[in-house]
Design a protein that fits this description.
- This protein has about 550 residues and is an alpha/beta fold.
- About 25% of the residues lie in helices and about 15% in strands.
- The protein has 15 helices and 18 strands.
- The strands form four sheets. It has an eight-stranded parallel beta sheet. Strands 12-13-14-18-16 form a five-stranded antiparallel beta sheet.
- About 50% of the residues are buried.
- About 5% of the residues have low confidence.
- The structure holds 1-deoxynojirimycin.
- 1-deoxynojirimycin (NOJ) binds next to loops.
Length: about 550
């Protein structure tokens, strides 16, 4: 039986109540091992997080200064987006030197301090590895284009024009346009599945493989706890460079690749690389982790990446893009869990990141968007597995409108679509100041006038703020039922999703009301509600809640 009754029972609704007293369990979770199986990982988009030197760009000093904010959420780890030397054509995903720190972001000593302080606060530190492509400013590419006989040429995909002229095949860049550009000398085309400043590496070249292994060791030796692997389903390409069967979907910001692009993504050879990386990670103490960005559409293909000797965690985009609908959400969750259960891997739930619209915006913006984003956060945090929080989601931020002259995302510049800058707006830390506490000066992206109203400092004082919702939810999530319990779906009225997490006698129900009608809750103590104005005993539309189910309930 579920903790719900039909909406007809809305008579005798109890009056509004204060948020119920919460008995919160702090500390590390005891039940789920290794740590990543139920991890909460906080993604820091470094250049938008906090600027410590007044140049308008977020940096590592800024991260250091805000570690307490992150720790106060109660997350297990932080993931820092690329801070390596880069011309910043693609926000640092165009890496010129993988073992360096770009002076705009800081230096190695600051990375060391972040590791030390984060560890002291009980958080692990993950950084990025970007193996599919390098920056065109990387020494390898410079060598390759300056001398056609240079050994580094074989580290890339250089091809002659097709016999009828033009690009060697029909592969498309994920950012729009052909995936091939002529090298500066005009001699041959080179492959770039993203911008032309991001030439794809040829992973058949043994030096490429050896060099990345050295990079992993370089950072692991410094104390890094793991890596987020950019476009993990990239790397290998069809050796015959055959045309893809059909042209890919239009750029839609999701960067997910389907069967239509089978000759340039998700080739089986990629798995051996990650098995090697996993062996490296496992040779270090401390459960070092790897989180793959695996943008493949097919769930069974995704599951191959998280087999026991590959990635501990992999995330994808279907949960992000699932519409606000109970049936669709249940289907997305079930399909993913089924596929991952088959290989014994945990799921990784993501609400937003720097490549997609923030959840609030995706669900309509304004108050409705915020209500739905808060509800979806509780849903994600109650599902079995790990989860990733994109910085600013804990403040309920939405995308900003970026004026054309300020656009910097190559998707916007190449494809002429709005691109991803809107979700990368600087974090408002304080309610006033030129960049609301992000920087003493301005910021690399403009911030809207009202941005300070969403600042961390104001939300700190409001117990119903999104900041407090995240803190409370992440704490409660450490209860054994939520971090290690079994899951089963519960019967629920139309438009409502309900499931139970159970560990021994502890049972927690998560109920999400996707419908436009309020739902009366029948039994159990509400642990937490995503509502902006909770009403006792009622689950309003676009709201989720967690209920401690009575132990006699079956
Ligand atoms: C995925 C990253 O998240 C995105 O920001 C980047 O543009 C592409 N990979 C290419 O590296």
């Amino acid at each position: 039986m579920t903790a719900l009754v039909a909406p007809e029972a809305l008579e005798n609704v109890p009056p509004a109540v204060e948020r119920p007293h919460l008995s919160v369990v702090y500390g590390r979770q005891a039940a789920a091992r290794p740590w990543w199986r139920s991890a909460s990982i906080y993604q820091i988009y470094v250049r938008s997080f906090c600027d410590s030197n007044g140049d308008g760009v977020g940096d590592l000093g800024g991260v250091l200064g805000k570690l307490h904010h992150v720790a106060s959420l109660g997350v297990d780890a932080i993931w820092l987006t690329p801070f390596f030397e880069s011309p910043m054509v693609d926000g640092g995903y165009d890496v010129a030197d993988y073992r360096s720190v770009d002076p705009r972001f800081g230096d190695h000593e600051t990375v060391d301090r972040i590791i030390e302080e984060a560890h002291g606060l009980g958080m692990r530190v993950m950084i990025e590895v970007v193996p599919n492509h390098v920056s065109s400013s990387h020494q390898w590419f410079k060598n390759a284009v300056s001398d056609p006989t240079h050994k580094d040429r074989s580290k890339f995909h250089f091809r002659d024009p097709s016999p009828v002229g033009g690009t060697p095949n029909n592969w498309r860049s994920a950012f729009g346009g052909p995936a091939w550009s002529l090298e500066p000398s005009g001699r041959q085309y080179y492959l770039h599945l993203f911008s032309r400043e991001q030439p794809d590496l040829n992973w058949e070249d043994p030096e490429v493989r050896a060099d990345f292994e050295q990079t992993l060791r370089f950072w692991l030796d410094r104390g890094i706890d793991g890596f987020r692997v950019d476009v993990a389903h990239g790397l290998f390409k069809d050796p015959l460079y055959r045309d893809n069967p059909e042209l890919p979907r239009e750029v839609r910001g999701g960067l997910a690749q389907g069967d239509g692009e089978r000759h340039c993504w998700n080739l089986p050879e990629v798995h051996e690389v990650y098995r090697g990386w996993r062996r490296i990670l496992d040779s270090y103490t401390g459960e070092r982790a790897m989180l793959g960005e695996v943008g493949v559409v097919d769930r069974e293909q995704l599951a191959l990446y998280v087999r026991p000797d590959e990635f501990p965690l992999a995330y994808e985009f279907e949960f992000i893009h699932t519409e606000w609908d109970a049936v669709a959400t249940k289907e997305t969750v079930s399909r993913l869990l089924r596929a991952l259960d088959a290989v014994g891997a945990p799921a990784t739930w993501v609400l937003s990141n720097h490549d997609v619209l923030r959840a609030v915006t995706r669900y309509g913006g304004g108050e409705q968007g915020l209500r739905r984003a808060r509800a979806k956060a509780l849903l994600a945090m109650a599902l079995p597995g790990a989860m990733i929080i994109y910085n600013g989601d804990e403040l309920g931020l939405e995308d900003i409108d970026v004026p054309e002259e300020a656009l910097s995302d190559p998707i916007a510049l190449v494809a002429g679509v709005p691109g991803r800058d809107g979700s990368r707006a600087p974090i408002p830390w304080s309610s006033e100041g030129p960049a609301f506490g992000f920087s003493e000066a301005g910021s690399w992206l403009p911030v809207p006038d009202g941005w300070g109203g969403r600042s961390a400092v104001l939300q700190e004082r409001d117990p119903f703020s999104t900041l407090w919702l995240y803190r409370l939810a992440l704490s409660i999530r450490r209860l054994p039922a939520l971090c290690a319990g079994d899951m089963r779906w519960l019967d629920a009225p139309e438009g409502v999703l309900a499931f139970e997490r159970r560990y021994g006698k502890q049972r927690i129900h998560c109920i999400v009301n996707f419908s436009a009608r309020p739902i009366v809750m029948q039994q159990g103590d509400v642990l937490l509600s995503s509502s902006l104005r909770p009403i006792g005993g009622v689950l309003e539309p676009d709201t989720a809640c967690w209920v401690m189910a009575p132990s006699g309930d079956t």
